[in-house]
């Protein structure tokens, strides 16, 4: 008796190993994956502009980064005692205008360099719903709690999403023709749009992604959304808000990602990193005991061995 449908997955190439350079962009699920890579000490850059929910925001960010554009004071606005940029998430917002400008432009420089060296870029699409600031006729990445009457809500068509993805791929390839681009659709349900509207949005994203990657051999797709919807079809796999995947669900999807994209050699190294991470999290009953001092000595030896092999790994 089989009580669960399974999403068939094939191993993908090129594999991610500890020589890989990773850039993750997009919705909060990009951060879920990115945190896993960070925990296992891969060379990772996650959402330099914070969470970007829709493909137009990702395209705008990539344009600014790859074209070496810079933000100036005219690109910022003051609201609720902070300076903001409509192209970035509110986590970059700051009471000091110069500090925000510095953060934005440093993030662009960092991204430019990372795209050049990247072996894999993961793009997670959250929604096809966008908000257009009517005063400037521009689609924003984040509304920053500006009154809703200032915006017009729009649904990007399949064709518009596809154009954003093609433009994004072109911008990335202008700096790095050989990088592998992995698309995925976020399993997070955007319930504030409405459940019917969320499904409509996700369908536009999925249709556009598949049309895009069918024409590009160096793009791939990882079915995060499908695993959540078709394998983890139970509310026990959601967080308390019933919208975001739970810790168990994220771990489950991560296990699939590992099987699909990560090399056998890297999996062995990940096991060693996890042993060290677990040991570092250990809290002894008697910190001065011989047993614990021996434990610490052994831990330092394991760290040293790993860092001899991978100089970039820091604990």
Automatic annotation (TrEMBL):
<dbReference type="InterPro" id="IPR014982">
    <property type="entry name" value="GSCFA"/>
</dbReference>
<keyword id="KW-0378">Hydrolase</keyword>
<dbReference type="InterPro" id="IPR036514">
    <property type="entry name" value="SGNH_hydro_sf"/>
</dbReference>
<protein>
    <submittedName>
        <fullName>GSCFA domain-containing protein</fullName>
        <ecNumber>3.1.-.-</ecNumber>
    </submittedName>
</protein>
<dbReference type="Pfam" id="PF08885">
    <property type="entry name" value="GSCFA"/>
</dbReference>
<feature type="domain" description="GSCFA">
    <location>
        <begin position="22"/>
        <end position="257"/>
    </location>
</feature>
<dbReference type="GO" id="GO:0016787">
    <property type="term" value="F:hydrolase activity"/>
</dbReference>
């Amino acid at each position: 008796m089989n009580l669960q449908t399974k999403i068939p997955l094939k191993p993908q190439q090129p594999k991610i190993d500890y020589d890989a350079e990773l850039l993750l962009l997009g919705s909060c699920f990009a951060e879920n994956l990115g945190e896993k890579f960070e925990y296992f000490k891969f060379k990772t850059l996650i959402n330099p502009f914070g969470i970007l929910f829709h493909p137009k925001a990702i395209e705008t960010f990539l344009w600014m980064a790859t074209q070496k554009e810079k933000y100036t004071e005219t690109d910022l606005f003051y609201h609720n005692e902070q300076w903001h940029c409509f192209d970035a998430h509110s986590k970059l917002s700051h009471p000091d205008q110069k500090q925000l400008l510095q953060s934005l432009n440093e993030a662009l420089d960092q991204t430019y360099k990372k795209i050049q060296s990247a072996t894999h870029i993961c793009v997670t699409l959250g929604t096809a719903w966008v908000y257009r600031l009517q005063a400037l006729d521009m689609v924003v990445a984040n509304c920053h709690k500006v009154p809703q009457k200032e915006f017009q809500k729009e649904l990007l068509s399949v064709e518009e999403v596809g154009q954003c993805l093609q433009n994004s791929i072109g911008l990335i390839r202008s700096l790095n023709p050989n990088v592998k681009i992995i698309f995925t659709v976020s399993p997070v349900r955007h319930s504030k749009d409405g459940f019917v509207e969320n499904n409509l949005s996700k369908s536009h994203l999925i249709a556009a992604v598949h049309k895009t990657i069918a024409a590009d051999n160096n793009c791939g797709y990882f079915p995060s959304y499908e695993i959540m919807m078709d394998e983890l079809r139970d509310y026990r796999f959601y967080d308390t808000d019933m919208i975001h995947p739970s810790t168990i669900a994220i771990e489950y999807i991560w296990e699939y990602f590992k099987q699909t994209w990560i090399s056998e050699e890297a999996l062995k190294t990940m096991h060693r990193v996890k042993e060290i991470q677990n040991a570092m999290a250990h809290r002894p009953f008697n910190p001065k005991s011989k047993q614990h001092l021996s434990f610490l000595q052994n831990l330092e030896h394991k760290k040293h061995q790993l860092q001899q092999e991978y100089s970039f790994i820091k604990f």
